[in-house]
Amino acid sequence: MAEADIALIGLAVMGQNLILNMNDHGFVVCAYNRTVSKVRDFLDNEAKGTKVVGADSLEDMVSKLKIPRRIVLLVKAGQAVDDFIDKLVPLLEPGDIIIDGGNSEYRDTIRRCKTLKEKKLLFVGSGVSGGEEGARYGPSLMPGGHKEAWPHIKHIFQSISAKVGTGEPCCDWVGDEGAGHFVKMVHNGIEYGDMQLICEAYHLMKEVLCMDQDEMAQTFTDWNKTELDSFLIEIAANIFKYRDSDNKHLLPKIRDCAGQKGTGKWTAISALEYGTPVTLIGEAVFARCLSSLKEERVEASKTLSGPQGAKFSGDKAAFLEDIRQALYASKIISYAQGFMLLREAAKEFSWSLNYGAIALMWRGGCIIRSAFLGKIKEAFDRDSELQSLLLDGFFSKAVQDCQDSWRRVISTGVQQGIPMPCFSTALSFYDGYRHKMLPANLLQALRDYFGAHTYELLSNPGHFVHTNWTGCGGNVSSSSYNA
Fold first, then answer.
1. pLDDT of 262
2. Where in the numbering of this chain does the 6-phosphogluconate dehydrogenase C-terminal domain appear (predicted)?
3. pLDDT tens per residue, range 292-303
4. Within the chain, which residues score under 70 in pLDDT?
């Protein structure tokens, strides 16, 4: 007897929490795991007293599902997803829906969409953000893939997602093929940037202003009542004040060596691939790589010196406000860059992305959730064709209002020898973007001089010419190409 609305495969913490979340919203879920004993354990413990049903094989699971069958995979990205899809295909019928909720690479999702379409099955690749807590009480969901699947899963997805404002769900259809996983990848890249910016602010507070943990906790608590109101600022404040069992602050005891799972790196690689200057996320990834060279840094610290005797002598409260504004301006740049990458991918794959809806999906439930995303939604409501957030009146004014503070922070940090890869790359991008003329004319001349790569004249764009710079190089040019 088909009784379950949806099945979920993969009973790690995220999977279990999503099942309990769906159960809370009145959906009957069938749980399955490759190690079948886990299903029994889950039903006897976390899912005790719920309507969740278990399955002891994939055949058993499929037989318990209402038509069209809806199956969520929450297993390790990569081969494991393909293995399960291969096992499911022979058990399913045309119109059944497979949903991959893992952190899959968007190209894998594009490939799976194509293969399953040939088999008349519907595939959805959905980003899921918010960690364990989000999965349990309301994540941000970013589904993309075969649009025909959306009416069959919309009610479930929007019911279990986080809600903001007057109850708008942090979940909407993103676009075709790998659009959902691409948007999730950019979300994770932005998360890398946000965290690195917070770390740079912390470094300046600690080294330049010599603030103690409790002062920093208080500052972040105060900042969370301003434009910086966000989940990451809120939890940073909690981390600063957290004390270990010995009643000493825990943060200074933690080894300064960052790990990463790869989604930030994928974002940076996509940026290079599509020629989009997403510099801040790139620097955030490299900052993690540099942090992981702990032993080398310890060695280097014995011989490489920084600026001597440059102690901060300014007004502490004023400089703290400067740091806050530098953080805000840099964050605007990072999101502007992230949305540039989304726009470029949309062109590349002919996805019609709804940028305002994406900002709303990130407004709650996910790791980068913040009040600020509401402003991005408003910017795209004002102009759905907006080329860059920096061209929106609200954001251009915000960055311009912050720029004096931003420049002071970076120059002070540089004089004190504090690394600020994300603060400084954000300002470089801003300064590059607002320059009508950049020195790339010399770059083109150099390329033409040594490699006959040609250039365009300002008076005649689109027409490529070559100059015989030395008088003896000949006039044959290499074909022009875009780097």
1. 78
2. 180-470
3. 999 999 999 999
4. 1, 473-483
Annotated ligand binding at 192? The verdict is: yes
- Residues designated catalytic: 184, 191
Written in H, E and C, the secondary structure of the chain is CCCECEEEECCCHHHHHHHHHHHHCCCCEEEECCCCHHHHHHHHCCCCCCCCEECCCHHHHHHCECCCCEEEECCCCCHHHHHHHHHHHHHCCCCCEEEECCCCCHHHHHHHHHHHHHCCCEEEEEEEECHHHHHHHCCEEEEEECHHHHHHHHHHHHHHCCEECCCEECECCCEECCHHHHHHHHHHHHHHHHHHHHHHHHHHHHHCCCCCHHHHHHHHHHHCCCCCCEHHHHHHHHHHHCECCCCCECHHHCCCCCCCCCHHHHHHHHHHHCCCCCHHHHHHHHHHHHHCCHHHHHHHHHHCCCCCCCCCCCCHHHHHHHHHHHHHHHHHHHHHHHHHHHHHHHHHHCCCCCHHHHHHHCCCCCCCCECHHHHHHHHHHHCCCCCCHHHCHHHHHHHHHHHHHHHHHHHHHHHHCCCCHHHHHHHHHHHHHCCCCCCHHHHHHHHHHHHCCCEEECCEEEEEECCCCCCCCCCCCCCCCCC
**What is the tens place of the pLDDT at every residue in 10-24?**
999 999 999 999 999
User: Does the annotation place 261 within a ligand binding site?
Assistant: yes
77 assigned ligand-binding residue? yes
pTM for the whole structure: 0.92
